[in-house]
Amino acid sequence: MDWDDLRIFLAVAREDSLSGAGRRLGVDASTVGRRVARLEQALGATLFVKTPQGYALAPEGERLLPHAEAVELALSSARDALSGPGELTGQIRIGAPDGCANYLLPQVCARLCEAHPGLEIQIVALPRVFNLSRREADMAIAVSQPQTGRLMVQRLTDYHLHLAGHQDYLRAHPPVRTRADLRGHRMIGYIADMIFDRELDYLTETGADWAQLTSNSVSVQMQAIRAGAGLGIVHDFAIPFCPGVRRILTDELSLTRSFWLIRHPDDRRSQRMSRLAEALAQGIRAEVARLQGLVPGLEAGLDGQSQQRA
């Protein structure tokens, strides 16, 4: 048995499929299947059971899993020991909600790659909670603190959200002076049955009964607002990327949420992962502060009493 075989085994265990493991490892599914069969033959044990949903761990596979993960951790620790002082190398996969992945992580990761040329960063943007136990990501950013599971959780930073619309929409529609005025406007928000975290249920904060245009992606919502489709709650840190989008009702509707960094508990023994986590945390804090600092106050002619039809 060698590490390459165990690496294949871990990928299939985490992806529940040969094709998913192949994508993760950069090899074709047939090669993954042959390698699994070779490992099973060498061990004289069946490691996976084929089901309609994919490949599930057999009892023998369940027993092998913690040992394979221990080997993975040991190799990671060895890489730490051989790295230069302060140097970060190797691959890291970061899972994040799409707002963070689109508006924060590109700049943060660009600076990390510049500082550490041997580092390979993968950003997985998904509007759902990541499963670190299955190693869908090496670390994940979440919008609420996990309440269950053996996880390492670190609060990164608070961020702010406000109701906003594009200046062209605001000029072409009735003024918004109070929440009651929102009844005369098109609202944009999340698809109700696809809200994966209670912290994302922004629509109730506005008092609106429903949203006419919805998406499970906060980035799609922002682009709809930018296109003049209506009003919606947006991240302040996204506004600098969307010219013409303006905050409104800031005194009445001002939300604060937090980002949390979540890591697998075994990673506490990895100096490399700890250094990566700290560098990522510092980068996100700085980028949120920078972008929010670029957001102007309410523009003259668009707020309160002066927000009239052109």
UniProtKB/TrEMBL annotation:
Keywords: DNA-binding, Transcription, Transcription regulation. Residues 1-58 form the HTH lysR-type domain. GO terms for molecular function: DNA binding; DNA-binding transcription factor activity. Gene3D superfamilies: 3.40.190.290, Winged helix-like DNA-binding domain superfamily/Winged helix DNA-binding domain. Pfam families: HTH_1, LysR_substrate. Belongs to the LysR transcriptional regulatory family. This is LysR family transcriptional regulator. It comes from Paracoccus yeei.
